[in-house]
Amino acid sequence: MCRWLAFSGSPLLIDALLYRPKHSLIDQSQHAELGAETTNGDGFGLGWYPTDPVAKQTPGTFHGVGPAWSNRNLRDLAEHLRSPLFFAHVRASSGAPVQETNCHPFRHDRWLWMHNGSIRDFSRLKRDLLLEVDPELYPLIEGSTDSEAMFYLALTYGLRDDPVAAVERMVGFVESTAARHGVSDAVQMTVATTDGERIWAFRYSTAHQSRTLFYSQTVDGLRAVHPEVEALRLLSDQDRLVVSEPLGVMPDAFKEVPESSYSIIYDGQDEMSAFNPR
């Protein structure tokens, strides 16, 4: 399907996570180990919040339709851009066209959204799903993916006020719509969304066999276990990361997000709870 990462912490050069680790997201775009496909070359995207607190509410985005591993502009941007919170995504299309408007992360106002997975038989369900989108939001849909439809359904259900409840309602609506059409195991997803202050990360599938998702251990805990790793001294205790599959070479640096659960990351902390579609 896809690979993605979400970072929150002290302002960091984006290439420190996108390119430098041994099994970086760029490496995963060619050599994914835990995804449905090993190659994720159907476009990419980057979304980031600036360090300037005045502009922090509005994220920037950069997308491309080619593979991330060969995009010179992405590499140059990552080497010069520092951000306290950013999303990065490499895409393997599940059927929708390869075009910029189908590349994650998607943006609405101060919110970003990215997804790995699919809605089964989306073409059969698409009309009913999109008719549920708030009429004021519907004209803002630019692409043709199930991922963007999920985003706008979540916005319709109150993502900006209560992200967890909105995503639970969105998934419940997709599953009930699929059931009416005789589509089983409708939802497969790992989703990240943010308002620039907090990150919400969800792992869920109707069949309870979800795509992989991991979150980083606390930096101070890793320093205690690996005092020999120089790079850990350069990181802040506030730095947290959520990824489709682990980066780097320390096997204990990441823990798996449990099945049917979500995490909220803010101020270097995380809260884990059960995810229950409504």
TrEMBL record:
PROSITE patterns: GATASE_TYPE_2. CDD domains: YafJ. Coiled coil: none annotated. InterPro entries: EgtC-like (IPR026869), Gamma-glu_amide_hydrolase (IPR052373), GATase_2_dom (IPR017932), Ntn_hydrolases_N (IPR029055). Residues 2-268 form the Glutamine amidotransferase type-2 domain. It comes from the Bacteria. GO terms for molecular function: transferase activity. Keywords: Glutamine amidotransferase, Transferase. This is Glutamine amidotransferase. It comes from Asanoa ishikariensis.
